[in-house]
Specification:
This protein is an alpha/beta fold. It contains ten helices and five strands, in the order E-H-E-H-E-H-E-H-E-H-H-H-H-H-H. Strand 1, helix 1 and strand 2 form a beta-alpha-beta unit. Helix 7 crosses helix 8, helix 7 packs across helix 9 and helix 7 packs across helix 10. The radius of gyration is 18 Å and the shape is globular.
Length: 204
């Protein structure tokens, strides 16, 4: 690789820092591990520009609080959030606050690399956000009214059953709408669908 691409791993679990760091180094990235969000924020001025791999559940200060602080300080480094609890609500909050993606532990190498590549694309393409928002708005406009309702529910972090209850339809119908909207948006994961929704200003 021509330029050094730095990934900051902010996670209180030593095993995660080691295994993920090793995985990324083998893939050509430069890695800086941090044992907590507090330590990372304390040394932020000296931290090299790059991508942040941020664990959600940490003592002292959780990942969402760290992310909020980064936003408050105007730090534009892209964030990929790690969650070990399959907590969609937390992941949705992180993405609303600007996270590039969220990964559930344990994650596969290919999924991690894809998320980090997307983060570096965002870093290189800050000025492309306006065009992404316009593209996202066009995609959302192609959904039926009911599919948009389901997407709004997903953007709130609601499970299918809650969306079904709110809309007065069956959970199975929600699943059908969810599958249809994913197809129309050209995405395969919830995080990709949410990225488009938030770019278009859909907040549920």
């Amino acid at each position: 690789m021509d330029e050094k691409r730095v990934v900051h791993i902010v996670d209180d679990e030593d095993s995660i820092r080691r295994s993920t760091g090793f995985m990324l180094k083998k893939s050509g990235f430069s890695v800086t591990p941090w044992v907590s969000g507090v330590e990372f924020l304390k040394n932020l001025k000296q931290a090299e520009q790059g991508c942040i791999l941020l664990d959600v559940r940490m003592p002292e200060m959780d990942g969402l609080a760290v992310q909020q602080e980064l936003n408050a300080r105007g730090i534009s480094m892209p964030v990929v959030v790690l969650t070990g609890h399959g907590d969609v609500t937390i992941a949705v909050q992180a993405m609303k606050a600007g996270a590039v993606d969220f990964l559930e532990k344990p994650f596969e190498k290919a999924v991690l690399i894809t998320a980090i590549e997307t983060a570096f694309e965002r870093l290189a393409d800050a000025e492309g956000r306006a065009s992404r928002a316009a593209d996202a708005t066009i995609l959302i406009a192609g959904l039926s009214a009911r599919e948009q309702d389901v997407l709004k529910g997903l953007a709130q972090g609601l499970p299918n059953k809650s969306i079904a209850y709110d809309l007065g339809i069956s959970p199975r119908t929600v699943e059908v709408h969810r599958a249809n909207l994913m197809t129309k948006l050209g995405v395969r994961s919830l995080s990709e669908a949410l990225r488009i929704a938030f770019s278009a200003g859909v907040t549920g």
